[in-house]
DNA sequence: CTTAGCACTCGAGGAAACTGAGTGCTAATA
DNA sequence: TATTAGCACTCAGTTTCCTCGAGTGCTAAG
């Protein structure tokens, strides 16, 4: 059933106000809003109906109303008005991003910290590898002292290596042969096929250096597996404690613990299939501890087959409009930065035209 | 001034009891302890003196006493009785450590988590490189497509590399020459000396590939710098919230924030010069937020020139004896594990002989 | 030197009363 | 018919007041 315009307006106002104050909202407060042309009695009737429709709740008889999960969902999906980032906000985000970021794992930590600062909420950031990993090229270098260096070139120019102590004496020629064989048979294929006949074929062709093959392939498998693993960081946990809903220490502890545990380990996966910004409202969360905790997250592109994700964790009563806007802008800026790593070209702050923040509110 | 035996006994009892209950301790409670042979009145007098000596404090007139910072210091340095780990405790620590640990940065995270679990307090873990880093050996590999791979061998068999796009065409012979020059002049010296005449000499001898030298040395410097950087993780922050002293959310927030900020970034450095276990009691902390928060930490050996550190953060009223014992055992186990990485040989659980936990209580 | 006794202090905890924001319902109004 | 004013009622939160008892310091007796 579609809500009347007036009901929508009331619902939106209630959620807006509740987001600002964290206190149950009464009919009078709504009636006194600048562009509300009805008396508190009318609002009262509307609120009563919204309550019976399941969009609002009443903590107890003589208190105002607070949004229910369905109310938030409706708000996020249809009612919420786009938040316009101020020039100051875009500038501070840009400034934050401009700092040099080096290694990927450090980067994830840093991004999480920045997002947390920008939203004043705990933030998650993750980078996970897309697509099936394979080796582009093998190199074997004689390193003296009876050891060799194995160098793997991966797609996207990444290079990984390992020092291998030689179990047997191997000549330079043997190595050349072995690497030729490896490059001929084992490149550009997924690691699942490193088995059976292919393996035997390689062993046969490898000649004197055949005993190295298992060591090499073990390391290769390990490396490729590590490539697919997701790197994830959480920052700014303490910001939760500043919010009125977490004045209750026990509750705060439960939430913080489950943040630190595995609770969010599946978020990057969830994000894979979604596009744009995704909002998970309170009870839609999986974990029980997170009943009145929401998550807003979005993807960005790191390049090199890496998929980035940033998100924030907050009370169900969080300022979705603002958070979504900042998150989207952040993601956009990061994507652009990674697109041209040498001269980071940051997006222009939104000028006169409305700032579109794409959004899907999946369940 | 040396305290009388009886005063020591009273002080120890007060701290012990306060650690257990987190409530001010009265004279009666002390007098009723099994091996206390004096009446509450006598204890009262002793406590009054201990108070005027600065070892105890009184929250208000009609309450019991709590230890002051000086009281804790005294307790940690002289009074505390060694805690004997139970077989169960050693077993669970061993079990935890036995899990495979891969990369160093992951390892640091994992260790922090384990320590936090073992002590039920937030834990810090860090790994930092010891001694001045240098390059053992340079290798340059032609990688096709107008690029080369630079391979640096560091002490302790670590290998790092980078793909370099060639600005100019370079032949295999040129590369051989360049790497010979690099290996002759730039190995086994600290990076501070990569300057002036040495640099010029290399450039002159490098021939056709001279234009590569700056790129190579930039990367080398960066790598060596990264080698000295400390890797640090904190886990189990939420455990703080379970403790009575952090029922006050604002306080908890202040402490957690400063844990997440830079507050502990200097701990690894502090640990460098200390040996054994170090206890920093509340007000000895640098940061103001950490006034009634203590830190216990100890070192362990990762090998490969890496120095490990583990520590826990807790209220000044923490069970120093227990924490210190567990931490020491943990450190010992880790050291042994890294000493023989393939077949981790864990220390035997302490048998009949007293379990010595070396300890220095520096200021 | 130790201990029993005692008057005193003062925070914690609980009951009772008060306050006021907010409600639902009814009747008047446009 | 839709809106609004008015009113009695509800109930969480706050304040006030009181009691209770753990703990103290001091004095005098053992």
List keywords for this structure.
12 helices; 6-stranded mixed sheet; disordered C terminus; 363 residues; 3-stranded antiparallel sheet; homodimer; 17% strand; alpha+beta; DNA-binding; 11 strands
Description:
The structure is a homodimer of 363-residue chains. Chain A is built from twelve helices and eleven strands. Chain A is of the alpha+beta class. In chain A, the strands form three sheets. In chain A, strands 7-3-10-9-8-11 form a six-stranded mixed beta sheet, sandwiched between helices. The two termini of chain A are 19 Å apart. The model of chain A is unreliable at 342-363 (pLDDT under 50). Chain A binds a DNA duplex (30 and 30 nucleotides) through helix 3.
């Amino acid at each position: 059933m579609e809500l009347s315009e007036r009901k929508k307006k009331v619902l939106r106002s209630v959620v807006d106000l509740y987001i600002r104050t964290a206190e149950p909202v009464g009919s009078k407060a709504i009636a006194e809003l600048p562009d509300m042309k009805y008396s508190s009695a009318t609002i009262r009737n509307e609120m009563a109906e919204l309550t019976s429709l399941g969009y609002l709740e009443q903590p107890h008889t003589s208190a105002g109303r607070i949004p229910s999960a369905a109310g938030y969902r409706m708000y996020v999906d249809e009612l919420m008005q786009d938040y316009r980032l101020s020039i100051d906000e875009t500038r501070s985000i840009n400034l934050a991003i401009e700092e040099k970021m080096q290694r990927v794992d450090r980067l994830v930590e840093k991004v999480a910290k920045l997002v947390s600062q920008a939203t004043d909420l705990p933030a998650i950031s993750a980078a996970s590898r897309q697509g099936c990993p394979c080796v582009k090229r093998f190199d074997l270098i004689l390193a003296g002292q009876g050891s060799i260096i194995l160098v793997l070139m991966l797609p996207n120019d990444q290079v990984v290596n390992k020092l291998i102590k030689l179990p047997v004496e191997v000549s330079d020629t043997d190595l050349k042969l072995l690497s030729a064989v490896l490059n001929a048979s084992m490149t550009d294929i997924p690691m699942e096929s490193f088995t059976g006949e292919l393996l035997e074929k390689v062993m046969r062709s490898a000649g004197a250096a055949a005993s190295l093959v298992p060591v090499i392939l073990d390391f290769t498998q390990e490396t490729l597996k590590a490539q697919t693993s997701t790197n994830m960081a959480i920052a700014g946990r303490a910001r939760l404690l500043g919010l009125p809903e977490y004045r209750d220490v026990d509750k705060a502890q439960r939430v913080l613990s489950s943040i630190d545990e595995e609770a969010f380990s599946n978020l990057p996966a969830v994000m894979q299939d979604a596009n744009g910004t995704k909002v998970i409202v309170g009870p839609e969360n999986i974990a029980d501890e997170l009943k009145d905790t929401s998550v807003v997250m979005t993807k960005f592109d790191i390049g090199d087959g890496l998929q980035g994700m940033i998100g924030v964790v907050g009370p169900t009563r969080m300022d979705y409009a603002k958070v979504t806007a900042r998150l989207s802008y952040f993601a956009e800026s990061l994507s652009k930065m990674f697109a041209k790593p040498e001269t980071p070209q940051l997006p222009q702050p939104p000028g006169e035209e409305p700032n579109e923040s794409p959004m899907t509110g999946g369940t």
